[in-house]
Every structure is written in structure tokens, then in C-alpha cells.
Write a structure and sequence with these properties.
The protein has 226 residues and is of the alpha+beta class. It has one domain: Methylpurine-DNA glycosylase (MPG) (3-methyladenine DNA Glycosylase, Chain A), CATH 3.10.300.10. It contains five helices and eight strands; from the N terminus they run H-H-H-E-E-E-E-E-H-H-E-E-E. Strand 1 and strand 2 form a beta hairpin. Helix 4 packs across helix 5. It binds a DNA duplex (13 and 13 nucleotides) through strand 3, strand 4 and helix 5.
Length: 226
DNA sequence: ACGAGGATTAACT
DNA sequence: GTTAATCCTCGTA
């Protein structure tokens, strides 16, 4: 299904780097989703976390753990890794590095751009007031809900998958020259990881209201730019 | 086979 | 700030 999107689509080389580099590179990139209805949803990535692999006690692949769930992490760069947490939420990751090097970047928040009303519908619970834009994709579980991403994408290739692709950040966008707008902190929800819980492996766009409001463990801050 | 716990979220008090 | 929701995964037996 070659079309205009393919010209801008990030290829495997985009992901063939270490997770800290990719986590920063992804800020400002467009996450794009084509629904079964053919509608295209788009959002700008504003928050990411790097998971460094076998030594990283917060990573699913810590200690070379290799199971049915973590198998996609051992795949080539650009492999999509979607897992479920707490029985009800999905988290989207892009595997990076090299084959058999189980490292990945978690997408934690997106600024919605195209298809906002569809995202609102996908996230809406019955009998509730419509969600504000800033609540649609400001969290790893939220953005998967808004984009209709579940484990059907697990193990697929982001460089060739029809329903999901990535468009690199444009010149002058976040992640590029304007490093001063990028914040960095400990990762969220990994208190169990000992010394690795405090490592500054989370990156986010400082002035975005679409960053998750979850506080990184340890680092107490009213706003995620402390 | 069993059971604890999780890269979260929303709705409470 | 506290807690329920909800189910799959994985260590242990």
C-alpha cells in the first residue's frame, strides 16, 4: 500500500541505536496509526523512557530473561513490543540496538494532532464527560487506548507494518537543536529496580501539557521539569 | 498447578 | 493520599 506516508516513514536504521539515543530522537516524531476504517491518527511523541537491557533491573529483559513475553525485545531494531500491565492497559515500545540485544524505548506520552475526536471516542467511558485533549494520550496506557494499539502489534515491524508507523521529527522540532526544551528524570513506576530506579532515563518535552503527570519515583516535583 | 505482582489509570475520601 | 480494577506472566512447587 505505497503512498505518501511511506516516503516519510522511519526505517530500520532509525531504530538501530542505543535506547538513550533513540528515546531522545523520538521526541517530536509523529506516531501514526491507520485504523481499519482507513482513518489516520497522528500525534507527536512528548515523553519516552529508555530500558537498557540485561543489566537494567527495571527492564523486562534484565538478566537475559527471555520468555514468550519478552521475545520481541530480542528481535531486530524496529520490532514493536507491546505488553499488558495490571490486566487492562497496554504499553508501546520500540526495540532498538541490535539483534539479540534486548533494549527498547517505552512511549509514555503523545500530543494528539490528527483524529482527536476519534481518540476521544476510543478512550471514552460510558456516562462520563468527554475527556480533555490533555488527558487523551498523557500516559503509556492512555495513548495505547487512544490509538487503538494492543498486542496485535506485538512482534511486528514498525518499518513495514501497515497500521502503524513513525515519521521522524522535522528540522527545528523537539529533539533536534532545541535541547533546552527537553527534560530528563528518573523513570516512572520502577521502584523495585534498586539503583536502576533512580537513573535519569526518562525524557520529555518540558513545556508540553501532554506529558504524563505521573511522578518519577524518588524525584518529588510538582511539575515534571524539576 | 498455584499465587504474587506489575514499565497504569480512574475514582474515591 | 488511597485503592480497586483485572489478567497475564513467571517463579516456585
Amino acid at each position: 500500500m505505497p503512498d505518501a506516508a511511506d516516503a516519510r516513514r522511519a526505517g530500520r536504521d532509525y531504530f538501530a541505536t542505543d535506547p538513550s539515543t533513540l528515546a531522545q530522537r523520538l521526541l517530536g516524531a509523529r506516531l501514526c496509526r491507520r485504523l481499519p476504517t482507513a482513518e489516520v491518527l497522528r500525534g507527536a511523541i512528548v515523553e519516552t523512557e529508555a530500558y537498557l537491557g540485561v543489566d537494567d533491573l527495571a527492564a523486562h529483559s534484565a538478566g537475559w530473561r527471555r520468555t514468550a513475553r519478552t521475545e520481541p525485545m530480542y528481535g531486530p531494531p524496529g520490532t514493536i513490543y507491546v505488553f499488558q500491565v495490571y490486566g487492562m492497559h497496554h504499553c508501546l515500545n520500540f526495540v532498538c540496538g541490535a539483534v539479540d540485544e534486548p533494549v527498547a524505548v517505552l512511549i509514555r506520552a503523545v500530543e494528539p494532532i490528527d483524529g482527536i475526536e476519534t481518540m476521544r471516542r476510543l478512550r471514552q467511558s460510558p456516562g462520563k464527560r468527554p475527556l480533555r485533549d490533555r488527558d487523551l494520550c498523557s500516559g503509556p496506557g492512555r495513548l495505547c487506548g487512544a490509538f487503538g494499539i494492543d498486542r496485535a502489534f506485538d512482534g511486528r515491524d514498525i518499518a513495514s507494518e501497515e497500521g502503524l508507523w513513525l515519521e521522524p521529527a522535522a528540522e527545528g522540532s523537539w529533539g533536534g537543536s532545541e535541547a533546552s526544551r527537553i527534560g530528563n528524570s528518573a523513570r516512572v513506576g520502577v521502584e523495585y529496580a534498586g539503583a536502576w530506579a533512580d537513573k535519569p532515563l526518562r525524557w520529555f518535552v518540558r513545556d508540553s501539557i501532554h506529558v504524563s503527570r505521573a511522578r518519577p519515583s524518588g524525584a518529588v516535583a510538582k511539575r515534571p521539569d524539576a
